[in-house]
Amino acid sequence: MNSARSDSILSVVLGEDGRVSHHVDQREGLERAQAIADLRVSASFAPVGFRGPFILHLSIAHGRLVFDVRDAENRELRVYALSLSPFRRLIKDYQLLVDSYEHAIRDGRTQAIQAIDMGRRGLHDEGAQIMTDRLHGKIDIDFETARRLFTLLCVLHQRA
């Protein structure tokens, strides 16, 4: 079972107070829920020097992405803060693609939907690489975990 692994995530709490704005639209809600579910099932998340499973409180504060890593009893282990600067262009581009995707779906443009979806995957991959690089030496993560964390960063950033 995932919760027995020392590199697993038991739960993810978004925002300083554990919530994301109540204005989260349906798409963001689905993306957020899927990313969190995927992290709970298959994350490879190993803060250097700690054994899990972990509870991750993820928020944006003072222009930084904050990883508040806690143990299974929700006791704070360590807080890591990453500058958002390396992610800003990707977050902006991602939001533009998401908006374009919604317009293409509404207009029924199948080819555009496929092209936009490929672009979104590319941005996710680039965001995941930056996430992995920025966490190097702090938290060991695999590529899929980094992709899910980038998704959550985009959701948090849209509501920050």
Structure description:
InterPro entries: UCP032146. It holds the Pfam family UPF0262. It comes from Endosaccharibacter trunci. This is UPF0262 family protein. With 160 residues, this protein is of the alpha+beta class. Helix content is 50%, strand content 22%. The protein has a four-stranded mixed sheet with strand order 1-3-4-5, covered by helices on one side. It has a two-stranded antiparallel ribbon with strand order 2-6. The protein has one domain. α2 runs antiparallel to α3. It has helices at residues 26-42, 88-107, 110-135, 143-159, and strands at residues 9-14, 45-47, 54-61, 64-70, 76-83, 139-141. The N and C termini lie far apart (34 Å). A hairpin with a 5-residue loop joins β4 (64-70) and β5. It has four helices and six strands, in the order βαββββααβα.
Q: In what order do the strands lie side by side in the largest sheet?
A: 1-3-4-5
Residue-averaged pLDDT, rounded? 85
Q: Treating each run of at least 4 consecutive H or I residues as one helix, how many helices?
A: 4
Q: What's the number of extended β-strand segments?
A: 6
Distance between the termini: 34 Å
Radius of gyration: 16 Å
Percentage of residues in strands: 15-25%
Q: Are there runs of 5+ residues with pLDDT below 50, and where? A: 17-24
Q: Helicity level, as a percent range?
A: 40-55%
Task: Find the structural class using helix and strand composition.
Answer: alpha+beta
Order of helices and strands: EHEEEEHHEH
Outline, from the CA principal axes? elongated
Number of domains: 1
* Largest sheet: number of strands, sense, barrel closure: 4 strands, mixed
